[in-house]
Amino acid sequence: MKKKNIYILIAVVLVVTIGIVYATNQSDRGESSEVLTTASFGDFVIDIATSGELEAKNSVRIQGPPGLQRAQIWQVKIDDIVDEGTRVEKGDYIARLDQTELMDKIQQARNDLQQSDSKYTQTRLDTAMELRKARDELINLKYDIDEKKIALDQSEFEPPAVKQQAVIDHDKAERAHKQAVDGYELKKEKAVAQMAEAAAERSDDQIKVNFLTNLQEGFNILAPESGMLIYHRSWNGTKKGVGSTVQAWNPIVATLPDLSRMVSRTYVSEVDIRIIKTGQEVVIGLDAFPNKKLTGKVVQVANVGEQKPNSDSKVFQVDVEINESDTTLRPGMTTSNTIIAEIVPQVVYVPLEALHSQGDSITYVLKKDGMGYIKQEVEVGQSNLDEVIILKGISEGDLLYLSDPDGFEAKSVRRLMASTGSSN
């Protein structure tokens, strides 16, 4: 009997022990499933994160020949260009442009010059012959006047009718000579005008040939300064290389950037651009050097948005000038830019994951309260990508749930008007 009581006691102890262990495990399991955060207090940073690309703030433009529009060549292809990133010295070869259209125009200009030169020679010969004929006619008319003068002198003793006829013939000869002199002057003026026109046409054609020939030399592009060659980007963002076209109104082929001053060109969405202003500080990271951090400031904000490819929303160009001068920086490197739009001093803030919504008007948090929790309504302020300012409802150091406790939906929200001592 005594032995039996001992067995019963041992069984009871085992059951109680198992119950305690089970309860402890359940309690530990429940506590371990809780994910909590603490309401922080301090300066709140409102920032905008964007990606960008490095460009030189200043650069020397390498351009094609400036006379393309005058030559009525509206665009020309790049036949050859040295590799991007090549360091070149002043006067070094950079690129060669396609001369096909130019050579056709040179050949046509030479043909026009040959024709105008022939026309000039023909006009000179024709006018010379015409004026010589006119001069011979003047000489003959002068002889005729002399003959008529002799006849007039000899008619002094002739009958009056014969004498009168001699006078008339002499007057007619003088009048014919005078008319021929006036006609010669007109012919000479006409000859001068014809020669001037032919000479001007020949000169224009010669100038055109000279211009196109000189323009041809510009199709071999040389470096205007020393530096690192960077291909020029077109309006759609593509780089100009072999096969790309150079427009007459924008004949830039490549650039020689000043690597001592760099700019990160980025684009901000139309939603965020309202808080971006010049002078704001920026933290800059480089994809090529993840451990390197640079600083900068916003120096230019576009007034007009633009549509980026494969995007439905508009973006605004923002230029960020980098403060540091770093020899490792290269145009085209991808950057991550964190623009510090505003710093709100000394406020309570929590992670965005701690917020919950009920309907369209109530925002609340799950605030730990002893062994349990309450659904506390809060009034929120400004936010950034990760956190939000809490204006009312909780205080610094309050513990908030990031995970959702079982059955939290069924609890009622503790409204701000009804809460006491829980607003900061």
Description:
- With 424 residues, the protein is α+β, with helices and mostly antiparallel strands.
- Among the domains are: 48-54 and 259-345, Elongation Factor Tu (Ef-tu), domain 3; 60-96 and 221-252, OB fold (Dihydrolipoamide Acetyltransferase, E2P) (Beta Barrel); 103-217, Orthogonal Bundle (Helix Hairpins).
- The chain is built from 3 helices and 24 strands.
- The protein has helices at 2-32, 100-154, 160-217, and strands spanning 36-38, 40-56, 59-63, 75-81, 87-88, 93-97, 220-222, 227-228, 230-231, 245-247, 252-257, 262-269, 281-286, 293-301, 306-307, 314-322, 334-351, 356-358, 362-369, 372-377, 379-383, 387-392, 399-401, 413-414.
- A 6-stranded antiparallel barrel has the order 2-12-16-14-13-17.
- A hairpin with a 6-residue loop joins strand 13 and strand 14.
- The longest helix is centred in the middle third of the chain and has 58 residues, at 160-217.
List keywords for this structure.
424 residues; alpha+beta; Elongation Factor Tu (Ef-tu), domain 3; OB fold (Dihydrolipoamide Acetyltransferase, E2P); Helix Hairpins
Tell me the CATH architecture of the domain at 103-217: Orthogonal Bundle
| Relevant CATH superfamily of the domain at 103-217 | Helix Hairpins
Overall mean pLDDT stands at 86
Radius of gyration: 49 Å
How many DSSP H or I helices? Answer: 3
Low-confidence stretches: 19-32, 420-424
- N/C terminus separation: 69 Å
Q: Give a short account of the largest sheet.
A: 6 strands, antiparallel, barrel
Coarse shape = rod-shaped
* Structural class label: alpha+beta
Helix percent reads 25-40%
At the first level of CATH, the class of the domain at 103-217 is Mainly Alpha
What series of H and E elements makes up the topology? HEEEEEEHHEEEEEEEEEEEEEEEEEE
How many strand units?
Answer: 24
- What would the CATH topology of the domain at 103-217 be? Helix Hairpins
Strand order of the largest sheet: 2-12-16-14-13-17
| Beta-strand content bin | 25-35%
